[in-house]
Amino acid sequence: MRFGVLGPIQILDGDRITAPGPAKHRAILAALLMRAGQVVTLDRLTAVVWGEDPPVSAEPVLRVYVSALRRLVGAETIRTVPGGYLIAITPDQVDAHRFDRMVERARRARDAGRTAEAADELRAALALWRGPALADVDSGELRRTQAVRLEELRLGATEERIDLDLALGRHGEVVGELRALVAAYPLRERAWGQLILALYQAGRRSEALAAYQDARRVLVEELGLEPGPELRAAHDKVLAGQVRERGAVPQETPPDIADFTGREEVLGWIVRQAPAAGGAPVHLVLHGPAGSGKSAVAVHAATLLGAEFPDGRLYAALRAGNRPAGAGAVLEDLLRSLGCPEGAVPTGLDDRVRLYRSMVASRRLLVVLDDAVGESQVRPLLPTGPGCLTLVTSRSPLYGLEASRAFELGVLDTAGSVAMLARVAGEPRVRAEPQAARRIAELCGGLPLALRIAGSRLARRPGWTLEHLAVRLGDERGRLDELTAGDLAVRSSLGLGYRGLAEEEQRLLRRLGALSGPDVAPWAAAAAFGGLRVDRALEELAGAGLLQARGLDDAGQERYGWHDLTRLYAAERLVEEEGTAARVLAVVAREVLERVRRARVLLLPAEPGTGRTLARTAEQSLAMETTHLRESARWLGAERGFLVAAVADFHRAGLAEAAWRLAFYLTPFFELRAHHEDWHATNRIGLEAARLAGHRHGEALLLRALADLYRIEGRLDDAARALQAALSHFRDLADRSEEARARYRLGLVLLAQGRSAEAERCLAECLAEFESAGDARGRADALRGLGSLRRAEDLLTVSLDAYRDLGDPRGEAAALRELALVHLERRRVPAARDCAERGLRIDRRLGDRLPEASGLLLLARVAHADGVPEAARATAEEALAIFKEYGDRRGIARASLVLAAAHLDLDEIDGAFAGIAAAVTEFDALGDRRGLAEAEELAREARRRRGLWL
């Protein structure tokens, strides 16, 4: 059921439209609809129906009116609540609220530069109106508080839509509408200004000037006021067009590209920044990497805005070949374009600047300054006339250019890339091979220059398939060779920037070519550069558009990224000028391994071999450990993409030990943050590297880590096989400590498989081995495993104390969760809550989101056991949100089941079935028979409850 208030009151039920009959019924329904889903007090309804003089019997009469409305809209729709009434519908069921939402959505599209989409959305919103708001409601209170507000919103949305239509060149379509608008609302200056501009853009200047005089007369006669700034600016624009010199107007910008594609965001930004007639001049910088299409965007924008600049468009190329053009030479060309006679151009730069500024002071120009090298080159060329617009393209953001605004032009997304490829190569060919088209777009990295070249090659070779070109581009070694068409070449475009660098910056760029990561922090760049500081060189490379500064990461480090084709070019330069990349990677590997090893030590306090097995009290270590653990996880999170790529880089360079060690060092972080895909990828490469190098110890460590991953994913048989292989290696190597740690994990797998007796025997043997070897961390883990298996409070308490002595808050939090479960099973709810809350506080201090979600889920179960279903539902929902954020399917399943139980306790049967269905989906995908059985048991109870409820 839907309701209409934007016009006469309507009730829409399918195809049937009805309306409440008596006037007071309409007033009450309108008041409830304007606050859909909220309580409307009796006092409010009384004021709506009778104003300030209600009868003594107002309250019982209201009940009669409401009863009549219930027969019309359904008894359950209007609810009696303490203090008043509530209409139980969503705001979206009322056209006025939908109108508000659509207007807000249109404004977001407008702010994002999607002008046409914003105009269409506003048009659809305005189409909801069927007449004046609350047209048949006789209530002074509602007219004053609602109808006037809605009408003002309607007018504002209409004017906003007309602004967008004018920006889209639809001036001819809105003139009639604007004439009707100013006739109905003659005091709205904005509408008059829009009418004047629409007439002017349609070439009807005399009518535009007459409209201004009409508007001025009305304002003076009715209000005694002269027109405001907006209306005067529209008038000035028309006057400027009339008095403009009739001589030749320069139109120097290059021809627009016929197959220009996308870039709505930056074009919208340019249109919004463009100055009004008489306003201060605006200087915009479009910056980005080589080949990103900066010049094409500037020319396209100049073509779109050309009519707004009656004194012409100037163009200057600021780079001549490999060298920047001098400002003096460029000024000479610009002065001639502006009509400076032969022989009248001054010889000195300062004199040329003064003459240029004098000649542009009274003109409204659009100036494109293409491929600027630096601020000093651009400053003398900026026009100073009111309403002038300068579009500067540069690989640098030109931070030092005063009073300018900048927009970084990135690469196209996949959809935009495919669209551009289709425009150049031909729509039918791209439609015929959509997957190959997407592959080409990916291999071109969304770079417009590369896409144009790829499309041109296809257009000139009708016998080629897109798949054929995709295969050719797929070979990194020849990709830059393939991206050449005539005088267009990605390599030469990148080479132009490279040759303009100082020798030190060239060397840094080359060496970064050894790394395939998506971005790099200064410490890694310094390692590639031989340990020298590189901050200034990185900034220069970013300024040259060869790197992109991506801001600070979560660890507070500046990060620099680059386009993949730039990386390939840098790798080419490295091989050609310095030889193989292996030497650079060997230096980088030493620094990477040391840093990641230290981070792993902090993630796993007191692990054998870390040198941190001395016992300390929790009071001595808690603050320091918490800080270090958070910093370690934060740093690894920031470096994750780089480090994952480094594993493959080291392996390709023949640095097998570095590859497998880095893969192994990263496993606890991947486990903590549930980065399972990265874990699989690096483990596979690490295993291959260890096997190729014949390093059985490394192979065994990675097999053990792989088993951890399989166990988390529920692949218990695979986990057992990986552990058996690892155990075999450790036995052959006579490494009893690592063998015990592998056996401990086997015990956890056996327990998960339901083989409790074997698991207990395995864990008990591990405990004895750890105690014999003096492995305090192993002992704590084994005690926790046995305590969990036996549901033994004493063993878990000893484990908890051991973790505290080791200064291992993560282990402490895990032991507290296990203790909470034991207390919960024994109906000791306060003790369970205490342990769960203590563990949760530790997880939150550490910033460990997945363990935090486990702790929240445990607290939800405690609340369920304590008979507080509202708290159980809220806490389970919080846990579920975290599990979904990390894609933890087992956590999602468990949280969904606990949430379903909470819904059931609250008699929210539909919510319970929804949670059960979600849990079953996940348990089924995981092959978790125990979870499926629990879900089925809860479903039976839900079905029983539904039968009782019905």
TrEMBL record:
What residues are annotated to bind DNA?
A: 1-89
| SMART domains recorded | BTAD (SM01043), TPR (SM00028), Trans_reg_C (SM00862)
Tell me the superkingdom of the source: Bacteria
- The residues that cross the membrane are none
CDD domains from the xrefs?
BTAD
Identify the keywords attached in UniProt to this record, alphabetized.
Answer: DNA-binding, Transcription, Transcription regulation
Q: What sequence ranges are listed for the domain OmpR/PhoB-type?
A: 1-89
Q: Which GO terms describe its molecular function?
A: ADP binding; DNA binding
Q: Which InterPro entries match?
A: AfsR-DnrI-RedD_regulator, Apaf_helical, BTAD, OmpR/PhoB-type_DNA-bd, P-loop_NTPase, Sig_transdc_resp-reg_C-effctor, TPR-like_helical_dom_sf, TPR_rpt
A Pfam family hit: BTAD
GO biological process entries: phosphorelay signal transduction system; regulation of DNA-templated transcription
- Family membership noted in the UniProt record: Belongs to the AfsR/DnrI/RedD regulatory family.
**What is this protein's name?**
Transcriptional regulator, SARP family
Origin species, per record, is Streptosporangium roseum (strain ATCC 12428 / DSM 43021 / JCM 3005 / KCTC 9067 / NCIMB 10171 / NRRL 2505 / NI 9100)
